[in-house]
Amino acid sequence: MDGSGIPKGYHSVTPYLIIDGAEAAIDFYAEAFGAEEVFRMPMGDKIAHAEVKIGDSHVMLSDEWPDMNLLGPKNRGGATASLMIYLPDVDAAFDRAIRAGASVERPVEDQFWGDRMGTVVDPFGHRWTLSTQVREVSPDEMQAKMKEWEVEVAAQ
Fold it and tell me: What are the coiled-coil residue ranges (predicted)?
């Protein structure tokens, strides 16, 4: 322990997903995002807690526990949050996620803030935005591009 209160290898914020089908989700995340399973703690026919690592980040997950009001996106009526993954080749990663069973929410496109990104929804209802930074954009340039984009949207 280093005194920070953060376990070695973790970051200050760690997403925790509630999933209807956590075991299948672990397999999907491995195929779609290259996730490595860290560990799982089964409880009867459910997964009480599991962790996977995507790149240098941990994602915690468990099966649904309706008696504790812990429900996944499908039983809540849709995703309530989105996860973002920065990676070296967004196009290849996006294609891999689609082949693994994700559905396209937004195709991969270059964005004015310097990222090339697209969004998929996994078979369990969670939204994942995949992105590669292709150029650095200053805050001033980003604000100017945002104003241009707002004008385009308003004209539609």
Answer: none
